[in-house]
Amino acid sequence: MTHGAPPTDHSHAHGHSHAHGHSHAHGHGKAEASSRRVRRLLALVLAPFALAALVGVGVFYPFGQHLRSEPTLGYGGKAPVEGKVLSSNRGSCTSGSTGSSAGDGDCLRLRVRLDGGPAAGRTIEQVIPAAPGTPKFAAGDAVVLSHSGADPTRASSYQIVDFQRGTSMVVLAVVFAVAVLVLGRWQGLAALVALGLSFTVLVGFVLPAILAGEPPLPVAVVGAGMIMFTVLYLTHGFSARTSTAVLGTLLSLSLIGALSILFSALTDLTGLDENTSTLIGALGTGIDTRGLLLAGIVIGALGVLDDVTVTQTSAVWELRKADPDLSWHGLYSAGLRIGRDHVSSAVNTLVLAYAGASLPLLLAYSLSGRGFTDIVTSQAVAQEAVRTLVGSIGLIAAVPITTAIAAGIALREDDTTTPARRTTVAERVRRAAQTGATLTTLGGKRR
């Protein structure tokens, strides 16, 4: 009797284990099928927009067109020439002056060596009135002069208009890249690659298309779409989570575009300012200045939208992982609470960024003695106000939109099937590097 007892217990245990394993496999199969349906649905929703962006590039890009360049733009119609300050002294504004005369008084007398242009290697003298707004010059400063086109050997044919900043900007860019890599490592590398691709889309597609005469707003929408799909999937990998963030960004960006069209028309914004007028003069042809304003709003809002939608999506997925029993309403409510804190700081950042960029303009209007209403409703300030408010509304809307979509997708997405698909490009690079190092080590041991 006792001899037969263990087989009975063993068969029971074995049967229980088999039943449990069968039940788990059955549940896993349902979840995996659900995950496949979710991913298929997201692909069906996003694929037409990705295709439209690619078709838009083909339609708007100026294939075969020669874009006229204007090297004198920004230099008063004069050719830029690089130079280097050899000495800087204070002296009379008239004695031996070869530059602009301001009468007897205190002036800066600069000896400048021309490093470019038709008189490269020649040293000229520039006399600049020492006014309160005059920049400070010292020996060794790299400067840019404008050449009027007259006799290149005469100092009066030149005027200092700017400093050279190439080396300093490169150093700053390197420091930025190092900071991103130190903190983000492989993810930071992917972010830098994505940033480079964004810059490539702007410089290689958006700017040439607009300069070729294509409507600025549709071009900006296509460019924003290319940046959105490329950057988000490259940085965060191909997964339902990333696709949710892309969908939230797409809907919020559409809202921003619609609101910017509506309120730019209601407020009669023309988009004309000093920079736009200079551009029109250089092009010699008309350009849709209001469309250019709207294009700037769409592209400017995209970067902040990416941050909000990715954060909201990640928050919902982490909430789902921490408490798998949460319902859609529970996930949405918890995610919305997180989003409120995030969006308040994001809106504040957006407003302060625009205010900081427009600070000289605001100071000038403050000195005009005009009332607050007159200042805010002026063309220059009103377009920045519309830009800020429309962008902020889009940010606010992005939180509930993305959170609602993420909560619905997260409930139907099986976490056990996603890790491999969530692998980002940075993770693949890291794994490849580790695999290569391991193989090298093993090969060395074999020797």
TrEMBL record:
> What single Pfam family name could you report for this chain, choosing any that match?
YibE_F
Q: Which domain of life is it from?
A: Bacteria
What keywords would UniProt list here? Answer: Membrane, Transmembrane, Transmembrane helix
Basic residues: bias regions: 13-28
Signal peptide (UniProt feature, chain positions): none
Residue intervals passing through the bilayer: 41-63, 166-183, 190-211, 217-234, 246-267, 279-305, 346-368, 388-411
* Region (Disordered) residue spans: 1-34
Tell me if Transmembrane helix is a UniProt keyword of this record: yes
User: Would I find Membrane among this entry's keywords?
Assistant: yes
Instruction: Name the chain's protein.
Output: Putative membrane protein
The source organism is: Halosaccharopolyspora lacisalsi
| Organism lineage string | Bacteria, Bacillati, Actinomycetota, Actinomycetes, Pseudonocardiales
